[in-house]
């Protein structure tokens, strides 16, 4: 029982990342009709926003410590962050410790800016082109973006830890009446799940309860009619692209303490996220979220030792297997709409 | 630059001829005989230069490790050509290298990008051999790549001085007469780690293995399980994890449900960083199983990857081929270390990794073997390297065993530092395991199958 609860929790946090990325993908597809293979790269850039912000907070000046030597025997040069000078050692260290959560504030404008620039600078030229062209150009863009990141940050993973207050794990075992230590779950993964839930709720509320969102939904349903009413729907869709980029970016920012970011992390999520979108139903926002969590949980259960003993290697194909079954039984995905990508 | 006339048909014909000659007259080709043979092999240097090919990952997940290897190769070439302070050429027990290149020919080099993919690595090595006239290929950060490139070099009649490759297979079932490995291997990691683990954690332990699902993972798991089981540990489970896995939480969670009190992560590179980070997140480092503290072991350490894992590496035990602090901490036995660290550190501003060290050493060993043999002929070079004993290259007294072309030397057991002073000082040396303790017979079961075959001079 403990193992099942633990894998369910694992599935929730894995599903959170899938759902956030798939949500952005679906927003872009639903509004602009673009199949954006660069969306994983936006997740990766979001993670590197956290790395960059952390490095900005750690900007230092050099102080020479004559009493100690470096590896070559020269006097040791110590790096003292400017934050210590500005706010004192304790406050400065606390600010640096909270670099990841604080970098959300840095990432939102950066990601919206990158999203808008991508849409205006490149993707809008491909609106009327076949989906295959869109896939090729956005996939090429993803490769360019990851090579740019590798050029500046290297290929190695960069540790970006959570604040000390969230290091450690919560013991669900005691709370649920099991043995102590039988169901422990890292604090940060719980925070990631709650953060994902808040972001998903915020996006739905934005689309459901604001005038802007209402216009966007109308545009998604019938773009021509909305345009004939004199509304500049293109401008709103561009903003939606920026918002979708920010959602992917925030997913990346908060993911950095879970796995140290590297330039390739976007590609690792990209294919799975597309499977999530297809299973959820092309263009369906609730479908993307539902499929994200569903596939995350199924993938977690497929990795259990008991399952692997019976079906070795099932963990590597389970998501694709589920996708095949769903598409055979429900060709439009779990919550897909008629007419999307069917012309 | 020389033009290669290497063709598949030519290689097969000369390889067969050389094989036949080798079988018929195995002891006739001494250094003196080879000294007269400056032609009749692939890419025989004709002018006043000789070209070496450095095949390292310049893109892909091990690009940083590849960059460090390339730095070391550049440094070695500089030293061979008489530039810089000479580095380990000053401490090398063989003093035939005089800073005039190799046998008076100025050393130049070309590079290839393995991308840490076997097919890409073979293609780049083949290009360096056929188009650039490389006489020797070295480098790499993966056993899969090493085995593939080694096989290519065997076919082409080129010496392969392996870079970072740790799987037993490189000098086990996939060994080749033209291939030589300085780096240690999985068996040696197991043999070095087992007694230390016994001392640190006791003989009554239950180990749970997570193993990368490819060649290197299998040999490392086999080596560690056999070594630890021999001292009384029980292996409760060994689970293969996909190489592409990034989040290991689903694999870590079952560890909590088992009665294991040790987690062995047979992972390298990004896999190691992520699995270790996930294990620490799930509280395994602070976990108690009965009255025993839960422990994590990472059989193969990499300084660059340890940097990626950050504070999570603290207290974790593993093994290394070499460490830049070795001579300072364990004395003159490891002479050459400080000379190399000084050369590398002054040129690049930070200490070298073990990947850089093994590549630098392999380049010097190749140049030294050519000089002692008096010929660039791969068969002469191979003969000069076989059963060659040397010292002063940072690992203490070392033997390049002729039976399998594997170097035998002390192996380091290291542990992640609790409070590192800087980003380069991430590990502390627990012990240098003496070479006798990590030596095995050439026909050891973990190295069974395959044979060196005969040297192929190509052309």
TrEMBL record, chain A:
Keywords: Amino-acid transport, Cell membrane, Membrane, Transmembrane, Transmembrane helix, Transport. CDD domains: TM_PBP1_LivH_like. Its main location: membrane. GO terms for biological process: amino acid transport. GO terms for cellular component: plasma membrane. InterPro entries: ABC_transp_permease (IPR001851), BCAA_transport_permease (IPR052157). It is found in: Cell membrane. The chain crosses the membrane at residues 16-35, 42-64, 84-114, 135-153, 165-185, 192-216, 236-257, 269-298, 310-328. Belongs to the binding-protein-dependent transport system permease family. LivHM subfamily. This is LIV-I protein H. The lineage of its organism: Bacteria, Pseudomonadati, Pseudomonadota, Alphaproteobacteria, Rhodobacterales.
TrEMBL record, chain B:
Keywords: Amino-acid transport, Signal, Transport. It holds the Pfam family Peripla_BP_6. One of its GO terms (biological process) is amino acid transport. PROSITE patterns: TAT. Residues 49-417 form the Leucine-binding protein domain. Signal peptide: none annotated. CDD domains: PBP1_SBP-like. InterPro entries: BCAA_transport (IPR051010), Leu-bd (IPR028081), Peripla_BP_I (IPR028082), TAT_signal (IPR006311). Belongs to the leucine-binding protein family. PANTHER family: LEUCINE-SPECIFIC-BINDING PROTEIN, PERIPLASMIC BINDING PROTEIN OF ABC TRANSPORTER FOR NATURAL AMINO ACIDS. This is Urea ABC transporter, substrate-binding protein. It comes from Jannaschia donghaensis.
């Amino acid at each position: 029982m403990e193992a099942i609860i633990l894998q369910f929790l694992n599935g929730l946090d894995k599903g959170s990342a899938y759902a956030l990325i798939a949500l952005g993908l679906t927003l872009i597809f639903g509004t602009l009709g673009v199949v954006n293979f660069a969306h994983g790269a936006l997740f990766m850039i979001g993670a590197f926003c956290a790395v960059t912000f952390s490095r900005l907070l750690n900007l230092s000046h050099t102080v020479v410590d004559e009493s100690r030597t470096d590896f070559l025997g020269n006097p040791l040069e110590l790096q003292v962050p400017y934050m210590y000078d500005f706010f004192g050692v304790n406050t400065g260290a606390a600010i640096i410790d909270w670099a990841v959560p604080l970098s959300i504030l840095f990432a939102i404008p950066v990601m919206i800016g990158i999203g808008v620039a991508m849409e205006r600078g490149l993707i809008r030229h491909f609106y009327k082109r076949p989906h295959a062209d869109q896939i090729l150009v956005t996939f090429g863009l993803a490769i360019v973006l990851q090579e740019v990141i590798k050029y500046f940050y290297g290929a190695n993973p960069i540790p970006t830890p959570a604040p000390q207050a969230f290091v450690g794990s919560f013991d669900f075992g005691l709370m649920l009446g099991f043995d102590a230590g039988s169901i422990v779950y890292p604090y940060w993964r719980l925070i990631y799940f709650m953060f994902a839930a808040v972001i998903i709720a915020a996006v739905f509320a934005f689309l459901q309860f604001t005038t802007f969102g209402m216009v966007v939904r109308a545009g998604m349903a019938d773009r021509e009619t909305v345009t004939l009413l004199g509304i500049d729907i293109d401008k709103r869709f561009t903003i939606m692209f920026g918002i979708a980029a920010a959602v992917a970016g925030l997913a990346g920012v908060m993911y950095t303490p879970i796995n140290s970011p590297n330039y390739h992390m976007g590609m690792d999520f990209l294919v799975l996220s597309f499977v999530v979108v297809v299973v959820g139903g092309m263009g369906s926002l609730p479908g993307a979220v539902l499929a994200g969590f569903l596939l995350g949980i199924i993938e977690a259960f497929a990795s259990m030792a008991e399952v692997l003993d019976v079906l070795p290697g099932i963990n590597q194909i389970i998501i694709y297997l589920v996708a095949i079954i769903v598409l055979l039984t429900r060709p439009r995905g779990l919550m897909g709409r008629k007419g999307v990508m069917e012309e | 630059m020389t033009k290669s006339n290497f063709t598949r048909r030519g290689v097969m014909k000369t390889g067969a001829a050389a094989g036949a000659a080798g079988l018929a007259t195995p002891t006739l080709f001494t250094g003196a005989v080879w000294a007269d043979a400056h032609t009749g092999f692939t890419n025989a240097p004709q002018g006043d230069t000789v070209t070496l090919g450095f095949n390292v990952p310049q893109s892909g997940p091990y690009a940083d490790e590849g960059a460090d290897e390339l730095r070391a190769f550049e440094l070695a070439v500089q030293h061979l050509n008489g530039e810089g302070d000479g580095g380990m050429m000053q401490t090398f027990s063989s003093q035939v290298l005089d800073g005039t290149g190799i046998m008076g020919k100025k050393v130049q080099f070309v590079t290839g990008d393995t991308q840490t993919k076997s097919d890409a690595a073979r293609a780049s090595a083949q290009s360096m051999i056929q188009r650039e006239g490389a006489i020797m290929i070295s480098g790499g950060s993966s056993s899969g790549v090493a085995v593939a490139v080694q096989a290519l070099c065997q076919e082409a009649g080129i010496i392969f001085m392996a870079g970072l490759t740790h799987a037993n297979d490189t000098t086990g079932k996939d060994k080749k007469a033209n291939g030589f490995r300085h780096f240690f291997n999985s068996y040696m990691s197991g043999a070095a780690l087992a007694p230390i683990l016994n001392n640190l954690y006791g003989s009554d332990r239950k180990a749970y293995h997570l193993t990368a699902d490819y060649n290197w993972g299998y040999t490392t798991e086999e080596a560690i399980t056999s070594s630890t089981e021999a001292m009384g540990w029980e292996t409760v489970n060994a689970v293969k994890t996909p190489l592409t896995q990034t989040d290991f939480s689903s694999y870590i969670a079952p560890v909590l449900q088992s009665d294991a009190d040790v987690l062995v992560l047979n992972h390298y590179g990004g896999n190691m960083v992520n699995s270790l980070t996930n294990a620490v997140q799930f509280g395994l480092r602070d976990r108690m199983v009965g009255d025993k503290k839960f422990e994590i072991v990472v059989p193969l350490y990499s300084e660059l990857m340890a940097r990626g894992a950050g504070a999570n590496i603290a207290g974790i035990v593993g093994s290394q081929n070499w460490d830049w602090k070795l001579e300072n901490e364990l004395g003159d036995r490891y002479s050459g270390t400080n000379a190399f660290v000084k050369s590398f550190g002054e040129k690049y501003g930070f200490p070298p990794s073990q990947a850089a060290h093994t590549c630098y050493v392999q380049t010097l060993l190749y140049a030294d073997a050519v000089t002692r043999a008096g010929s660039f002929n791969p068969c002469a070079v191979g003969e000069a390297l076989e059963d060659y004993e040397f010292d002063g290259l940072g690992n203490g007294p070392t033997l390049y065993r002729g039976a399998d072309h594997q170097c035998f030397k002390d192996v380091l057991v290291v542990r992640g530092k609790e409070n590192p002073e800087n980003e380069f000082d991430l590990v502390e040396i627990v012990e240098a395991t003496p070479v006798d303790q990590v030596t095995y017979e050439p026909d050891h079961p973990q190295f069974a199958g395959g044979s060196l075959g005969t040297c192929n001079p190509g052309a």
